[in-house]
């Protein structure tokens, strides 16, 4: 079974902090939060690191494979199927407070 899905599945297990590095001092990073609404289709992904109903910070946009990079409960960022999440719209103040709170929890 090497039809490209195997490579995609392997890439979902890759985690990193690449998004945190390279941010210029003072550069405003757009924050996006998503709520987990469905874990079906996650397969062998870190299903224990996301919980339905919990809000997570997303990094970047949904890619061409339908995956989105989420900072999960482990404090690391992983690719998850975007179909399991919905975008949550917050005020700027709430976005910053939630971002700071999540950063403290995962530190």
CATH superfamily annotation: SH3 Domains
Quickly name the level 1 CATH class: Mainly Beta
Contiguous uncertain segments of 5+ residues: 1-28
Oligomeric state as shown: single chain
Q: What is the number of independent domains?
A: 1
User: Which structural category fits the helices and strands?
Assistant: alpha+beta
DSSP strand tally: 5
The shape is globular
Share of residues in helices = 10-25%
Notable traits:
globular, 107 residues, single chain
Structure write-up:
- This protein is 21% helix and 22% strand.
- The chain is built from 2 helices and 5 strands; from the N terminus they run H-E-E-E-E-E-H.
- It has 107 residues and is an alpha+beta fold.
- The longest helix is centred in the last third of the chain and has 15 residues, at 92-106.
Task: Provide a compact summary of the structure.
The protein has 107 residues and is an alpha+beta fold.
Element layout with pairings:
Layout: H1 5-12, E1 32-36, E2 55-59, E3 67-71, E4 77-81, E5 85-88, H2 92-106
Antiparallel strand pairs: 1-2, 1-5, 2-3, 3-4
């Amino acid at each position: 079974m090497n039809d490209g899905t195997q490579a995609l599945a392997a890439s979902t297990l890759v985690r990193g902090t690449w998004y945190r590095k390279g941010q210029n001092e003072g550069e405003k990073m757009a924050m996006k939060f998503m709520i987990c609404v469905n874990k079906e289709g996650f397969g062998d992904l870190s299903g224990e690191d996301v919980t339905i109903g919990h809000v997570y910070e997303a990094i970047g946009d949904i890619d061409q494979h339908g995956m989105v990079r989420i900072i999960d409960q482990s404090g690391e960022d992983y690719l998850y199927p975007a179909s399991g999440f919905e975008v949550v719209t917050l005020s700027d103040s709430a976005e910053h407070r939630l971002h700071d709170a999540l950063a403290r929890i995962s530190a």
